[in-house]
Amino acid sequence: MEKNTYGSFKLMIILSFLSYSFVGSDCATINIQYASALGDPGMKNDSLRVAIESWNQCNEVGEEAKNMGSPRMADCFDLDYSSLPVKINHKVDEVDNRLGVQNGTYGGINAGESADIYAAQKEIYLGNKCQVIDDPNPWQFWMIMLKNGNTDTLAAICPENGKKAKPFPPTGRFPCFGKGCMNMPSMHHKYTSIVDQEGLMSGSFYGTWDLDTDQEDDSVVGNNSYYKVKWEKKVGGNESWVFHHLLKTSSKYPWLMLYLRADASRGFSGGYHYDTRGMMKMVRSNPLFHF
Ligand SMILES: *[C@@H]1O[C@H](CO)[C@@H](O)[C@H](O)[C@H]1NC(C)=O
Ligand SMILES: *[C@@H]1O[C@H](CO)[C@@H](O)[C@H](O)[C@H]1NC(C)=O
Ligand SMILES: *[C@@H]1O[C@H](CO)[C@@H](O)[C@H](O)[C@H]1NC(C)=O
Ligand SMILES: *[C@@H]1O[C@H](CO)[C@@H](O)[C@H](O)[C@H]1NC(C)=O
């Protein structure tokens, strides 16, 4: 989802199965079997794995937003049905989610002073906490992706393929209100919990790029930019998790992006040069692979 005008939208996504077909070698008895390349195909498992990441226009972090830590967080839990009411056992806590470059080597992260490298390593750290063992490979989480389309061409803070880039005059192709226009958003988090008598589970991530008017409560403030991703499912229900996405631009942030991604569970994905974690437990190697 991408939006570059004012306003907001709300979208309900129900993810469909991603599968590939296998056709037997004997054409006379074509035997089609389906196996999902995704962990938790159809999002039907009560136990959910979801994470959030944020990028600037050059697919880096640049600088962390104040008091937010590195912009990689996760909400991963298993349900314990052994007693009533059922219990939600979270695998990632606030100490993990708020880790940032100033936390140095805590958790085995080794990124030096680089907020970019820190975020990539934090994703792997969170992935290890969320990982589900599966065949043929483990998987970790769905990924909510945020991106700020502003580009400060004069600051030249985007490395180009790992090398330092040169500044260039603003082209009009990319918006920027001035210094700091490529900032990361605030990231507030409501951990998944049971929110009603019927056993409805719900959780969310939300925030704004307009950090001077950031608010911890989850309301949209004035003409601020804003995002919110909220997920819901009834315990034991046969339906899928439902994700609600809200994205609103502002005059300072006219180009914002919000996606829900199924990244590769290891190796590079979606054009990033970092090792990622995600839901795709198989790579597309079968020639008969279909989406
Ligand atoms: C649901 O996910 C948990 C791990 O989070 C796994 O142990 C369990 O087997 C899954 N259930 C189903 C029906 O896939
Ligand atoms: C990480 O750094 C922040 C800010 O200095 C601090 O509040 C927090 O306790 C640190 N976390 C850990 C696990 O040391
Ligand atoms: C939001 O923008 C509209 C249109 O520009 C303006 O009329 C309104 O006063 C603004 N509201 C706030 C709270 O700044
Ligand atoms: C759950 O839904 C699937 C697909 O709609 C259906 O085949 C299955 O019988 C349902 N299971 C239960 C326990 O209702």
Automatic annotation (TrEMBL):
Keywords per UniProt: Signal
Coiled coil region boundaries: none
InterPro entries: DUF7705
Domain DUF7705 as annotated: residue spans: 36-290
Positions of transmembrane segments: none
Span of the signal peptide: 1-27
Protein name per its UniProtKB record: BnaA06g11490D protein
Protein's organism: Brassica napus (Rape)
Gene name for this UniProt entry: BnaA06g11490D
